[in-house]
Amino acid sequence: MRILQIANDYLNTNLYNELFDALSKVKTENHVYIPVNVELVKKIKIYNNTIISPCFTKIDRFLFFTKQKKMFRDVTQKLAINEFDVIHAHTLFSGGYLAYQLNKKYNIPYIVAVRNTDINVFFKYMIHLRSTGINILRNASSVVFLSPAYRERLINHYVPRKLREEIFKKSIVIPNGIDDYWLENKYYREISPEGKKLKLIFVGSITPNKGIEVSVKACELLIEEGYDIEFTMIGKVECKAYKKMIESSNFIRHIDYSPKEVIIEHMRKADIFIMPSKHETFGLVYAEAMSQGLPVIYTEGEGFDGQFPEGEVGFHVSTNDPKEIVEAIYKIMNDYVNISDRCVKKVERFNWDMIAQNLLNLYSETKI
């Protein structure tokens, strides 16, 4: 089966390499089209069955339909579109509109994925493009969401009421996967943290989006309750105010950006993973933490929320209420060993091979 993969943000993440490697094992022939800014022409590498094509300018980023016309002309000149069985656009607007146009000309079915930028930038702020987004959704054979939370938000907030059932019926939740390293090095915990000594951990860019302030305030509330708290933050500090906060705190331990072999050791010494991000399409680090038996605290309504029933591997919280985080920690501590055990067992949901098989099934159902 020949699949045209449209991956506009391919160069911004390693996820696509892992996804396409996994798909290559399940009898799909993947041709990846990556339209990029012409200024990147000297910075790119060409891979097998991959076209990284400089076809638009920086200014075109602000001219949606002009950029799309250039991409359409480019891809139809470089690929024999009518030889593909299915088109998979990995973004709703940037890639999905191209898939929609190709579908209209060549009658090839397409699948479209919905990501953070599609909801929190295009639908939220680019009101003039909302009807375009709805048309892309309606003409897609299937709509892939990374999480139930994002499916609910898109359909309930931006899809007209009369079309919601139609879009929901063709939607499916398929999460991202994590590096095999985490699945091959799972860590089971047999005992709960002792007494009131508690080690929390966060891994990621240390920015306002990650809920750093509310996490620190939750730690302070726990300290007021008599807990001995150690809060380890691993990642690059992107905000000067946070650097001062870290330096002045006696319970925060900061470790700079580190490879996974270092991160895993710190995770094994921690008790709970905490990241109440304001916006998070998925959050691979939650799944990585699960593989190490760490119960997770995540944001209500964001990417990880809904991946599992509430309380199964952790709890959701609002991104601005430290008391909710404290309550979530209490709940975890009351059933720590069972939650930790489920984390390790349930993390297989994020195995790339399983995800590739799910996508193969979807491609087979979509193929003309």
Protein architecture, described:
The chain has 368 residues and is α/β, with parallel strands linked by helices. 43% of the residues lie in helices and 18% in strands. The chain is elongated and about 65 Å long. The strands form two sheets. It has a seven-stranded parallel beta sheet with strand order 3-2-1-4-5-6-7, sandwiched between helices. Strands 10-9-8-11-12-13 form a six-stranded parallel beta sheet, sandwiched between helices. The protein has two domains: 2-177 and 351-366, Glycogen Phosphorylase B (Rossmann fold); 180-348, Rossmann fold (3-Layer(aba) Sandwich), CATH 3.40.50.2000. Helix 4 packs parallel to helix 6 and helix 9 packs across helix 13 (322-334). It contains 15 helices and 13 strands. The chain has helices spanning 15-24, 64-78, 96-106, 116-125, 130-139, 148-158, 164-169, 180-184, 212-224, 240-248, 260-269, 284-291, 322-334, 336-346, 352-366; strands at 2-6, 29-37, 50-56, 86-89, 110-114, 142-145, 171-173, 197-203, 228-234, 252-255, 272-274, 296-299, 314-317.
